[in-house]
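Please fill in the sequence for the structure shown.

STRUCTURE ENCODING:
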């Protein structure tokens, strides 16, 4: 009698092929050019889509299993954090400013990345790339959701968290990451994957997630630490996808090299300007600090990024334009931006404060060549004004860079005593920039950036017409409640009273 035998278990490679490559099909009544038109107009030449490989070889059934397990762990910790008044376990109420900045500025970017990867998953021709982009799209919307859920508990107790949608669309500093992601989404699929999958996820994500999550852990914010850890395993796949796509483009045709290099130049500079917000958070907004922005750049930028570009040199890739400028600017940009955030704090959804003597001693230690010489005198002057009963506030409107949309508070490369300012004429209109990098990006695509939505201009547009009170209502800010000096804020009074009651 014949004995039944079990079919041999499929290997990882064969299983991956059946659940990805074999899900595609060859069109019969439409040419591929009609089905995938966007893979050609950027100038990138792809001769064999099957050459693209996903190093993780993750299939969709395994993906859902892994993500479901992470969700169960994440929400269990989040519930415990809420039920045990975890918001009182943070080191100091000032930490809330760092959390507000991250949630307001970065979380909408996660959602924008979700939409972008969903789009390019349809636009890419290769089945393997389509599957990987679909997974990353799901990752990104999950990251946005978990971050907003982590902040929702703080919204029950503290100010500045309540107008998430209005803040994302209308507050001036949130337009910095929004313009970054809108710029990427308005490009083609290959530029988008270079901008988000490589320049942001691979080159710059460690400058964002590692210092922030370490800072959250060091300051007792377990809800934020949990969503950070939950996201980091996804980030490993995202980094690999971005790097694989860069190598794939460079290996397919030598004509792709100058196009890819141009994108790397652009998106490195755009990313570094956006992460200046993170630098200000690391150096000034964390009551207990883990590392300085300069130290983070030296580890994750100079060392890790330098090793990456040495590896890519065999393809003809060089370090992005502006790399040396960014390295020098790491000594300055966090201080320059924080001085701006302090003087325009009436237009933010978080509190500001003058660094204490202990804070300035730490900054002096971390920035021995620059802080005491250039920035301590400014803070000391602001402190003297406050003590004299004339606290410093600038109710003028900041001049924003047309490209990165940050206030033009930065200095000339090589001379921190001179304000850096660039401009150009385009179709009879003058446009302003904070750096050579931002001006070069504008000149490469002037029609795109000439139409940029600048939040400062909306003060004079309908429905505000120059009325500051109307503008505050329009952006969802409660003057003096959501913003202003931390020392006299409702958030400080509540946090200290509740902490005292909880520990009494």
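FILLED IN BY: designer on duty
SEQUENCE:
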């Amino acid at each position: 009698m014949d004995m039944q035998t079990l079919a041999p278990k499929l290997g990882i490679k064969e299983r991956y092929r059946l659940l990805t490559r074999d899900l595609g099909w060859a069109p019969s009544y439409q040419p591929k050019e009609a089905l995938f038109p966007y893979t050609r107009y950027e100038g990138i030449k792809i001769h064999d889509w099957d050459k693209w490989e996903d190093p993780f070889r993750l299939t969709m059934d395994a993906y859902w299993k892994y993500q479901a397990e992470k969700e169960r762990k994440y929400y269990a910790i989040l519930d415990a954090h809420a039920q045990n008044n975890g918001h009182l376990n943070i080191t100091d109420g000032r930490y809330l400013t760092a959390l507000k900045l991250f949630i307001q500025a970065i979380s909408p970017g996660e959602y924008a990345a979700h939409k972008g990867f969903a789009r390019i998953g349809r636009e890419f021709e290769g089945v393997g790339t389509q599957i990987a982009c679909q997974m990353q799209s799901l990752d990104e919307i999950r990251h946005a959701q978990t971050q907003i859920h982590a902040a929702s508990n703080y919204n029950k107790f503290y100010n500045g968290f309540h107008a998430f949608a209005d803040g994302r669309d209308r507050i001036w500093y949130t337009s910095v990451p929004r313009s970054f992601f809108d710029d990427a989404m308005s490009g083609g699929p290959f530029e988008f994957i270079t901008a988000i999958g490589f320049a942001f996820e691979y080159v710059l994500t460690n400058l964002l997630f590692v210092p922030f999550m370490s800072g959250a852990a060091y300051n007792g914010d377990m809800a934020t630490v949990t969503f950070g850890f939950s996201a980091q395993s996804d980030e490993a796949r995202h980094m690999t996808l971005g790097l694989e796509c860069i190598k794939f483009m460079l290996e397919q045709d030598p004509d792709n090299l100058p196009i890819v290099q141009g994108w790397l130049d652009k998106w490195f500079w755009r990313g570094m300007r956006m992460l200046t917000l993170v630098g200000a958070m690391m150096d000034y907004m964390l009551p207990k600090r883990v590392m300085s922005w300069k130290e983070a750049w030296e580890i994750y930028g100079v060392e890790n990024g330098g090793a990456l570009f040495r590896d890519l040199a065999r393809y003809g890739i060089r370090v992005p334009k502006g790399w040396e400028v960014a390295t020098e600017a790491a000594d300055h940009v966090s201080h320059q931006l924080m001085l701006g955030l302090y003087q325009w704090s009436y237009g933010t959804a978080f509190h500001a404060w003058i660094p204490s003597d202990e804070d300035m001693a730490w900054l002096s230690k971390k920035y021995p060549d620059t802080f005491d010489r250039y920035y301590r005198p400014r803070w000391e002057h602001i402190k003297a004004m406050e003590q004299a009963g004339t606290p410093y506030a600038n109710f003028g409107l900041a001049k924003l860079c047309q490209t990165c949309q940050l206030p033009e508070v930065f200095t000339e490369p090589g001379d921190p005593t001179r304000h850096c300012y660039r401009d150009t004429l385009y179709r009879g209109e003058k446009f302003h920039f904070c750096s050579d990098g931002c001006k070069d990006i504008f000149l490469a695509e002037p029609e795109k950036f000439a139409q940029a939505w600048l939040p400062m201009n909306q003060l004079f547009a309908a429905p505000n017409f120059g009325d500051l009170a109307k503008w505050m209502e329009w952006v969802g800010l409660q003057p003096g409640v959501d913003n202003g000096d931390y020392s006299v804020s409702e958030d400080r009074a509540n946090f200290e009273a509740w902490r005292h009651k909880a520990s009494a």
